[in-house]
Amino acid sequence: MDAIILQILNGLDKGSAYALIALGLTLIFGTLGVVNFAHGALFMIGAFCAVTLNKILTLSHTVIDPTKTDFLGNPAKIQVPYVYDIFGESAGASIIDWSVPLAIFFAIPVMIAIGFIMERGLIKHFYKRPHADQILVTFGLAIVLQEVIKYYYGANPIPTPAPAAFKGSFDFGAMLGFDPNVIIYPYWRLVYFCFAALIIGAVFAFLQFTTFGMVVRAGMADRETVGLLGIDIDKRFTIMFGLAAAVAGLAGVMYGPINAPNYHMGMDFLVLSFVVVVVGGMGSLPGAVAAGFLLGILESFASMREVIAFIPGINQVIIYLVAIIILLTRPRGLMGRKGVMED
């Protein structure tokens, strides 16, 4: 039982990332009808927003500390971050420690701006083109963005530590009545799952309970009729592209402490996220979220030592096997709508 609970926790952790990226992908496809293969790059850029803010906050200058000496006996020179000068040493150290959560506020405007530029500058020219053209141009854009990140940040992963308050692990076993230290799980992974649930809930609440969201949902169902009512649905869809980019970026920001950001992390998640979207049903937001968590949990169980010993390599292909089975039995996916990508 303890192994099952631990794998469910692992699956929710992986599923959170899959669901967030797939949610953004589905928002873009459902509103604009664009298959955006650059969406994984937006996840990567979000992670590097956290890296960038950390580098900004740790910018420092050299001061002489008369209380310390170097190996020659001269007063030691130490590096003091500028935030210490502005906020004081204690507050400055806390700001640097909390750089990843603070990067959320840095990443939101950056990702929305990048989303607007992508949509207005490139993707809008491919709305009425075949999906194959959309895939090619957005995949090319993803490669360009990946190489830009590699040029400026290097090819090696860059650690972005979680705040000190969330380092360590939570003893789930003791809470559930098991022996201590039987089921322990990192605090930050629990934070990531809660953060993902919050973002997913906020997106659904925005679409369900705001006038803007209701118009967008109506436009997804019947774009022409909404346009005939005098509503500039194209402008609203552009805003949704920016919001989808922000969702992907925030997923990347908070994922940094789990997996150190690197230039190819977007591609690593992209293919799996598209599988999630297809399994959930093209254009279905609830399907994307449900499929993300489902496939995350299945992948986690397939990674167990006992399962790999029985079926070697199953952890590498389980998601694709499940996708094949679901699409053979339900060609539109779990919650797909009739007529989506069927022409």
Automatic annotation (TrEMBL):
Belongs to the binding-protein-dependent transport system permease family. LivHM subfamily. The lineage of its organism: Bacteria, Pseudomonadati, Pseudomonadota, Alphaproteobacteria, Rhodobacterales. CDD domains: TM_PBP1_LivH_like. GO terms for cellular component: plasma membrane. The chain crosses the membrane at residues 16-35, 42-64, 102-123, 190-216, 237-258, 270-295, 307-328. Its main location: membrane. It is a multi-pass membrane protein. One of its GO terms (molecular function) is transmembrane transporter activity. The gene is livH_2. This is LIV-I protein H. Coiled coil: none annotated. GO terms for biological process: amino acid transport. It is found in: Cell membrane. It comes from the Bacteria. The keyword Iron does not apply. Keywords: Amino-acid transport, Cell membrane, Membrane, Transmembrane, Transmembrane helix, Transport.
